Amino acid sequence: MAVEPLSAKEIEDRLAELPGWSLDGDRLTRTYRLPSHFAATALVVHIARIQDELDHHSDLTLGYNTVSLSVHTHSAGGAVTEKDFGLARRVEDIAPGHGPH
């Protein structure tokens, strides 16, 4: 089943439910600041597990105490789709200080 790009309005509505996430060009993005490099590294491992489970992968950048994600759906021509928001919601659920909605 093909994944369809979301409209600008659909993206705006979904972003309203995910504080901290934003649209940067054609990608959903979010940066998390953590208390240490070890905590940031642990978050990367958890995100990688979720991405493998969903078979949907973001660009993931580990900084000293930050983790940044940038994602869009290649199979939809590099557009933002519901798959991207599904990944964002799952990451929010496990990010320290955020927890399930």
Describe the structure in your own words.
With about 100 residues, this protein is of the alpha+beta class. The protein contains 3 helices and 4 strands. It has a 4-stranded antiparallel β-sheet with strand order 1-2-4-3. A hairpin with a 3-residue loop joins strand 3 (about 60) and strand 4 (about 65-70). The longest helix is centred in the middle third of the chain and has 18 residues, at about 35-55. The radius of gyration is 13 Å and the shape is globular. The chain starts with 7 loop residues before the first helix and ends in a 7-residue tail after the last helix.
Brief summary of the model shown:
The protein has 101 residues and is α+β, with helices and mostly antiparallel strands. The chain is built from 3 helices and 4 strands.
Q: Share of helix among residues?
A: 25-40%
Q: How would a textbook summarize the main sheet?
A: 4 strands, antiparallel
The averaged pLDDT comes out at: 94
Low-confidence stretches: none
Topology:
Blueprint: H1 8-16, E1 22-24, E2 27-33, H2 37-54, E3 59-62, E4 66-71, H3 82-94
Antiparallel strand pairs: 1-2, 2-4, 3-4
Helix pairs in contact: 2-3
